[in-house]
Amino acid sequence: MFFSGEYERTLDAKNRVAMPPKLKDCLTDGTVMLFSRPKEPFIRAYQAEEWEKMVDGHYFKDDGVDRTVLQREIGRNSEKSEIDGQGRFTIPQKFCKRIGINRDVVMIGVGRRFEIWAKEVYLEENDDDNSSILDELIL
After folding, report:
1. Helix (H), strand (E) counts: the chain
2. Is the pLDDT of residue 59 over 90?
3. What is the arithmetic mean of pLDDT over 49-60?
4. Over 80: is that where the pLDDT of 134 sits?
5. Distances in Å between the alpha carbon of 98 and those of 37, 40, 80, 118?
6. Cα 119 to Cα 56: distance, rounded to the nearest angstrom
7. pTM of the full predicted structure?
8. Closest to 26 in 3D by CA, of 83, 99, 103, 78
9. Would you say 87 and 21 are in contact if contact means Cβ atoms under 8 Å apart?
10. Euclidean distance between the first and the last CA atom of the chain, given in angstroms as a whole number
């Protein structure tokens, strides 16, 4: 599973957005876990199984360290969203408000996750030509 690509979509009146087929193909169970970090301009989206492994392995392990506040923040800033029969999932209103989504979004595949941006914010944040960073990539 490797999310990749860039896709523009539009939210409907119920905050549902159509899942791009290439991203949907990376999901095994039709569920997306959405996580919105305060102060980040995008929503992180994970396959539910990947999210559970990541969160359980790092933040809910039983090693004697009190992570109560961190666990609470993870819980209140994440939500599960089911993909419906038409290939749509719902973005919670609180997440839309936090990152400024009104209607148009951009979804970007980023390996084990994909990101959901308000289109206007995405265009502002990513208006630089970052292609030079690829010069260091060895493939």
Report:
1. 5, 8
2. no
3. 86
4. no
5. 9, 9, 17, 10
6. 32
7. 0.89
8. 83
9. yes
10. 19
